[in-house]
Amino acid sequence: MTANADEELAARARTMIGALTRRETDVLELISRGRSNAEIGRALELTAATVKGYVSRILTKLDCANRTQAGLLAHTARGGPSGSAAAR
To answer: N or C: which end of the chain has fewer CB within 10 A?
Structure first.
């Protein structure tokens, strides 16, 4: 991918994440760091059931099949390398 395409992809990811609430964004950030629901709950002082609800809403809003996809989307929004760039 070219730098321009990477920038466009990051901008689209930021737009999608912009639709999340502040708390959903907090949860997504911790998902992108590989945290479990229990770890997220401890960090944000939430029950595991509440975190599970947030994760479900995040996946729906971002049209992601799983938390790994959501985490990669968050990484892309921060300007992380795309899959093709990481392989270079």
So the answer is: C
C-beta of residue 27 within 8 angstroms of C-beta of residue 58: yes
The distance of Cα 26 from the centroid of its chain, to the nearest Å, equals 9
Q: Rounded to 5 degrees, what are φ and ψ at 52?
A: -60, -40
Write the pLDDT tens digit of every residue in 67-78.
Answer: 999 999 999 999
**10, 79 in Cβ contact below 8 A?**
yes
Q: Residues in the chain with pLDDT < 70?
A: 1, 80-88
What's residue 19's pLDDT?
A: 95
Mention every residue, 6+ apart, whose C-beta is less than 8 A from residue 72.
Answer: 32
Residue extents of the structural domains in the chain: 3-78
